Amino acid sequence: MSFFNSISRSMTRAQRGSKRATTPTSATFSPAEMLPPSPVVSSPKTPPIPKPLYLSSPFVEAALVKGNFKTIVMLPKYVDIMEWVAMNIFDFYTNLNEFYGVITECCTQQACPMMSAGPTLSYTWINHDRKNVHLPAPTYIDYVMTWIQNLLNDEATFPTKSGHDFPQSFPSTVKHVYRQLLRVFAHIYHAHFHQILHLRSEPHFNSLFAHFLSFGREYELLEIKDVKGTSSSPVGVGQLWEAWRDMGILEG
């Protein structure tokens, strides 16, 4: 089911290169310069980055829901697709906000001075001057959650009353919401998964994130490039996506 392809149908219902250098010859150098070169001492290799805890067994397999998430994200019969998307957006926001609430004391400006989601990736926020700025993670997440809460409370964006239709901009809006929620998930996995483990909540958090990823892909709210990042700045949870796909939990 394509959320974006069905939007018009749903809206009609009363529901809501450099040159090569010259090769030197023996005539170019003096005899002293032609002595064998001294052996080169290789510098020690940079130690590999250890695998994140969330990719390590048994944590990567921890889940409350077994099997493929495809079955629980399918649009129920007789349910309007925009109602279904709106309800799930609300649930994802509420549950993620609760998880963040229990680790918020650990996510401080000192501990998380950047909104990081991998060893070489930090997200930026667009300020009032339309410039990309780096913010501490707690500030960034507070902006995201406040923005989404205001949208959810806006009857013109998320209508709850009978006879009120969803706006034409709804698909685009929820796609932006989804991208920002993904960033919050990615930061928690990268910077605070050990705290999730300390609370013994990794099965709950993994299931919530797998549900979020599956739903986003089913209704075209999530781009793979947002999940994986780039080769120079990969998103940490991109590897988690791949691991769950290989395990049969998610589809490609």
Q: How would you describe what is shown here?
A:
By secondary structure, this protein is mostly helical. The strands form two sheets. A two-stranded antiparallel ribbon has the order 1-2. A two-stranded antiparallel sheet has the order 3-4. It has eight helices and four strands. The model is unreliable at 10-43 (pLDDT under 50). It has helices at residues 7-11, 70-73, 81-103, 137-153, 170-198, 202-218, 224-228, 237-246; strands at residues 116-118, 121-122, 125-126, 132-133. The protein has one domain: Up-down Bundle (Butyryl-CoA Dehydrogenase, subunit A, domain 3). The protein is globular, with a radius of gyration of 25 Å.
Structure, briefly:
The protein is built from eight helices and four strands. It has 252 residues and is mostly helical. A hairpin with a 5-residue loop joins β3 (125-126) and β4 (132-133).
Could you list some keywords that capture this structure?
single chain; 252 residues; mainly alpha; two-stranded antiparallel ribbon; globular
CATH fold node name: Butyryl-CoA Dehydrogenase, subunit A, domain 3
Total individual domains: 1
From the coordinates shown, what is the CATH architecture?
Up-down Bundle
In DSSP terms (H or I, runs of 4 or more residues), the helix count works out at 8
Report the C-alpha radius of gyration, rounded: 25 Å
Percent of sequence in beta strands: under 5%
Overall CATH class:
Mainly Alpha
Largest sheet: 2 strands, antiparallel
Uncertain regions spanning at least 5 consecutive residues: 10-43
Overall residue-averaged pLDDT value: 84
Percent helix, as a range, is 40-55%
Element pattern in H and E: HHHEEEEHHHHH
Instruction: Give the neighbour order of strands across the main sheet.
Output: 1-2
CATH homology superfamily: MOB kinase activator
